[in-house]
Amino acid sequence: MTEVVSIASRVSAHETLRGSAGRGHIRIDGVSIVFGSGRAAHQAVTSTTLDIRPGEFVCILGPSGCGKSTLLNSIAGYVRPSTGEISVDGEAVSGPGPDRGMVFQQYSLFPWKTIRENIAFGPKVGGRSATECGSIANTFLEMVGLTKFANAYPAELSGGMQQRVGIARALANYPSVLLMDEPFGALDAQTRLMMQESLLNIWSEFGTTVVFVTHDVDEAIFLADRILIMSASPGSVIADLKVPLARPRSLEVETSEAFMELKRSCHEKIRAESLRAFQQQAQ
Ligand SMILES: Nc1ncnc2c1ncn2[C@@H]1O[C@H](COP(=O)(O)OP(=O)(O)O)[C@@H](O)[C@H]1O
Ligand SMILES: [Mg+2]
User: Fold this and answer.
1) What is the Cα–Cα distance from 60 to 42, expressed in whole angstroms?
2) Taking Cα atoms as reference points, which of 167, 147, 151, 170 lies closest to residue 159?
3) From residue 99, how far is each of 76, 113, 172, 273, 279 by CA, in Å?
4) Per the CATH hierarchy, to which homologous superfamily does domain 3-26+53-78+94-282 belong?
5) By C-alpha distance, which of 98, 70, 74, 101 is closest to 202?
6) Whose alpha carbon is nearest atom 12 of ligand 1?
7) For residue 11, what pLDDT is reported?
């Protein structure tokens, strides 16, 4: 499994990977999201304003049901804000697009396509030639350390490997933004740690903006430049914290004083919001 940690350094095509550097500026301006209408209306997100810089790695934490996925889906263009606006690099988001890659918790690969075909799918739909698709697929297969599995089918791979294919498939469109919704939530603890290191390697190589939703505080601190904590429903950002840890990071950082202190502060804020969410549900 050590191959996972060093994968990005083995990729030769560095110039192509840097395609998204400098892009991925997300602006969320006064966004509220209401589902349903009338008596059935449910406000999931309220008055949220955020500015996420190109290349920034942002983690979103918050109690279950507070609107984390809804906010992420609105950046992806799957959910339309009821009020306010979202833009990426100055372009208003009005629907999904290849500039915003998404990775979900469930491995949403095509089971009837090989790993190579899964990764090449986006570029193929985007009109790239067969040669280009092949070369892009090879680059990203190498990046996630799965070259040997190019011709295998998803069912032949472990959960961690499938999730690496999911990341490769999202990156194969050269997105300026990578949106990840609890992508490692279904993995065992050991694989999860490997995936976190692996993702940081990929991100440092690729330079894309990442917005990563998790409810795991350790994961958020280990990965992020910046942590956003959301309130209980309706969700809004109640804390915007800078992670004061140098990069590159290795797992030892989790025992440092700075890590512990930030962890305490995050837990305190989330506990208060979780309690509020619990009380809301009990009413
Ligand atoms: N498509 C939808 N229609 C109606 N309600 C929804 C929809 N999606 C999410 N919700 C509701 O919005 C709230 C926030 O959901 P979600 O964003 O999934 O929370 P989180 O990801 O933080 O757990 C929840 O109360 C959920 O039931
Ligand atoms: Mg969610």
Assistant:
1) 21
2) 167
3) 9, 23, 11, 33, 39
4) P-loop containing nucleotide triphosphate hydrolases (3.40.50.300)
5) 101
6) 44
7) 46
Ligand nearest to the CA of 61: 1
- Burial pattern 181-218, b for ≥16 Cβ within 10 A else e, equals bbbbbbbeeebbbbbbbbbbbbbebbbbbbbbbbbbbb
Over residues 186-222, the pLDDT tens digits come to: 899 999 999 999 899 989 888 899 999 999 999 999 9
Determine the atom of ligand 1 nearest the C-alpha atom of 67: 17
pTM over 0.90: yes
Rounded to whole angstroms, how far apart are CA atoms 240 and 269? 11
- What order do you get walking across the sheet with 237-242 strand by strand? 100-103, 177-181, 209-213, 57-61, 226-230, 237-242
Give me the pLDDT at residue 205, please: 84
What is the distance in angstroms between the CA of the first residue and the CA of the last residue of the chain?
Answer: 48
Could you tell me the distance, in angstroms and rounded to a whole number, from the CA of residue 183 to the centre of ligand 2? Answer: 11
- Identify whether the C-beta of residue 85 lies closer than 8 Å to the C-beta of residue 29: yes
Q: What is the DSSP letter of 12?
A: S
- 3-class secondary structure, 151: coil
Q: Are 71 and 60 in contact (CB under 8 A)?
A: yes
Testing ligand 1's pocket by substitution, the residue of 31, 43, 70 carrying the most ligand atoms inside 8 A of its CB is: 70
